[in-house]
Fold Glycosyl hydrolase-like 10 domain-containing protein.
Amino acid sequence: MRSLPARLMGKLMSLSALLCALLALSLVPGTASIYGATSGPGIPQVNTTPLAPKRQLRAAWLATVQNIDWPSKPGLPIDTQKQEYTAHLDEMQQMNMNAIVVQVRPTADAFYPSRYAPWSAYLTGTQGQDPGYDPLAFMVNETHRRGMEFHAWFNPYRVSMQGDINQLVANHPARLNPDWVVSYGGKLYYNPGVPAARQYVEDSILEVVRNYDIDAVHLDDYFYPYKVGNQDFPDDAAYQRYGSGSFAKKDDWRRANINLLVYELSTRIKQIKSFVKFGISPFGVWRNKVADPTGSDTAATQTSYDDLYADARTWIRNNWLDYIAPQIYWSIGFTPAAYDKLIAWWANEVSRSRIQLYIGQGVYKIGTSETTGWQSPNEMPNQLALNLQYPQVQGSIFFSLSSLHANPLGFKDRLSSTIYHTPALVPTMSWLPRTNPRSLTLQPLEQSTQGIILHWSDAPYNGTIAYVIYRFSSNGATQATDFNTGTNILTILPKLQNNYQHAFMDTSIQAGGNYTYYITPVDRLHNEGAPVRWQPVTQR
């Protein structure tokens, strides 16, 4: 049997006592709501009107640690690795998703040629072995070719999933700098309290920002590791050397170490490429209300602030991030950590900042009996419907891609056919630089027995990365044009950068139908130019 994803082990262990106590609870019958989902007694009712947001991040994590998602196993031929990745992208396109979050540095190793880390063993089976191509360059190119964003996901401090430093390749930075390394819970970590280790981590991430055309740097919830039993992270020596003179409590020093990493990364990323986004996906509970009256009404046995020393509130209030995506992997109404309560808490938390809120959705739990709710096919659709009730929530990231592929309780089918039934643009970020996309030149529409053909011209390499085509139809009456909903988006086409001429055929029209088409250019941060209209047409 395949082992549980390392990303989830800490969460499951930390909540195991609570989960076991709740396994016996029966599912609550519910009433119909949006997307055919259900809500039970005490669970907030959601809007029953289906919505088609024009802008919504729709992403999935692709985990490479332990080959969870990709490659399916180490040592595959190059062509097989590439085929697997492009198949993932094709599947995401079928679900109208617009971004992928790829783990490019799972354990202080790399899926690209690096000065700071050896080649990952998850590629070839042998740490340090060149796979014969640049996987990251290939993935970025293939992702952009489909008009999707590529978020490069880093685990900043995890060195190894095993605890013996001598099993690392001889030139591994951890072996060359053993004073940076801590062994804890059977794994190896860089010590966040050692300044040289923090500088190394930052430099290794910025190497990718400089060398690759990524859209975002993404960190997940692993800062200081999840606690193992009553064991304390063994960093007393580092605290005495670097922190005790300024911080009376070691916990405050630990949080300051993580805050400094986040602040410095935020600053340095923008100095190199001002358009590259920076996002973090913390554990879903910042603090419980019992520990802090401003915390959430939850009873998680570990929290981001108190146990991982990751103070998301400080990051938000200082606008160090472009987005935050808390992992809220519990069901609606789950007493120790209710999805509905946490959504409301995080929405309020970001409401006075510019930071965009996306939600980390635990699709891997669908169909399990881990906690109440997940055995219903309506749990995840109801969560997504609840998200739409909060304007602060601007999208979702699903963990993980292989779980989506498995189509648990038919969720992938519902996502593509109903929930994400129209395309959507990635939300814009007004504080990042925009390039005012130039207007397009349209040629007359053509009609054929297969459909209506749209032609337009645009200068190559002018900052435009995609086109949005809108279609409005009527039965002879004046056609209303609403550009603020996804309902009228026919398609979003990535731009072929070396082409002046572009074309698209609409094959979904009906004979005798009256149609008006508009097109807008889009820059790499998804800002739209002014719409340009073709002459209305009636299909013969």
About this structure: Residues 1-49 have pLDDT under 50 and may be disordered. The first strand starts at residue 31 and ends at 32. The CA atoms of residues 201 and 471 lie 48 Å apart.
